Amino acid sequence: MFWFDWMSLGIVVVVAIIQTVRTSKAGGMGLTLFEAAGLVAAAVGANSLAGSLAQAIGVQPVVSLIVIFLIFAVLAFIFAHWLFGVTGWSFESLDGLLGFFWGVVAGWVIAHMVLRIIIMSQGENGAVAEVMANAPIAREVYSFRTWNALMALLFKARLGPEFNPDVN
């Protein structure tokens, strides 16, 4: 395992633990659910807008990716706090387990974005990108291979969503 495997694993575990504690202090798993969903939306938005914004204002794509992700993440956290205040979602005895699960999702997104930033800053032929195929944890965090394989299997069994994950 490489240093970025350990970094990815550390980010996911630390964020999951923090979110589990925050779930118990908040009094419901809704806060961590909304934050995880907001981080996913922030990552998707940042990845889709970074290239065009960087070209429009004349900065490196990695800089625009970082700035857009941070702005969207802060807005997502504000919206998550407001939404949790309105709904107060809680599953009582399952809050700890669900908070940990949503923490893993949030940590995964953060680790994915850190890896994406590292690879973008080094280039596609950089040190991390070259050995990513041999890094089991970082490869999974970066490329979602297991998720894509599961969706392909469910699609073939007609149990998955009504789209083909093999087609972009």
UniProtKB/TrEMBL annotation:
Indicate what this protein is called per its UniProt record. Answer: CvpA family protein
Q: What are the protein's UniProt keywords?
A: Membrane, Transmembrane, Transmembrane helix
Write down the superkingdom of origin: Bacteria
Q: Which residue ranges does UniProt annotate as crossing the membrane?
A: 33-50, 62-84, 96-115
Q: What is the lineage of its organism?
A: Bacteria, Bacteria division WOR-3
